[in-house]
Amino acid sequence: MTTRKITGLLAALLLLNVISVNAYGGDDESAGDPQQPTPTSAAVEPEAAQPTAPDEEAAPTETRGSAIGDPAERLTADVRYHQPTKRPLAIMIENHPESRPQSGLDVADVVYEAPAEYGIPRFLAIYVNREAPVLGPVRSARAYFVAWSSEYKPVYMHAGGSPTGLSWIKQLKVQSIDALRTNISGFGRTDDREAPHNLYADTRALRKEIKKDKSLSTEKGTWGGLQFSDKPTVGSAEGQKVRVEYESGYNVSYEYDERTGVYNRVMLGKPHLDRESKKQLSGTVVIVQTVNARAIEGDALNRLDIDVQDKQPALIFQDGRVIEGFWEKEKRDSPTKYTTKDGQSITLKPGRVWIQMVPKDNSKIER
Q1: Low-confidence stretches of the chain (pLDDT beneath 50)
Q2: What pTM did the predictor assign?
Q3: Domains of the chain with CATH codes
């Protein structure tokens, strides 16, 4: 995949392009040049009229040859998960049908998925132990993703954002980089997709740029509320698979592979593959969190509000078993606590983690 910088007439053409794309994409990212800052007055990108929710089943994930799982995930004593040795990078990734398959999610240490407007889901990917030379498509910030990312003390990266999302970045003092308003290397658009679904990042280049920026602190960050242990909590029931169906009809499932010790991700009935590696996405741990979610009253674009300060049920899947418990977050930027039904802290098997946010109303969890 070839990336390029955008300047002059080409940027203007892409801006016209994104206006038409947003007419059905329901997002707020403009196709501004990621290599050239835009005026402060454009802090929140213009959005088009209300789109029609896309037919998720009409654009299934590609099913190119997949390498299932990663045998290395069987190793429990992995010192990389004791304490982050590098500053976490938290990056917004879209899951609109035209963004699939995505690039770089296969090497993320933690991935959150939650619904956004019009039932279109979105990812927050956390990178510490591995780098992604091609990562994306990068999209805009939402407030609840900002709150979850703040737990890791990261550099949060996004392409514009909703008014509340941008406000929470400031309120929670999350160090961030807006791809649409920066002149650093590490972001670029590709020629094979139309904007806004063609903005990609390179975590290696971004780390080099962060080191040059004295305004960004050098703290190593944390694993947030994730407590990894060489002796993880053992589930009390069989947990070989879990399936989540959202109100929009979008669905995702995770299926345990005893050979590799990971849960392979299936989206809309087909293996969810990485565009670059062709590998099926997987996690050593899968956390399914029930959340209260609702459309923001008066928001013309039907954006969602998800309660991040709350206590709700959670299912934690690891080693083919499930732990029934709770998640709790006391403040917007405090670590999420995961506990059993009797209040004991849950420890996780070291490895990649997928966190699936599921609205309490009009969603189904099957296992």
Answers
A1: 4-26, 31-66
A2: 0.83
A3: 3-35+43-48+85-212 (3.50.90.10), 237-291+301-366 (3.50.90.10)
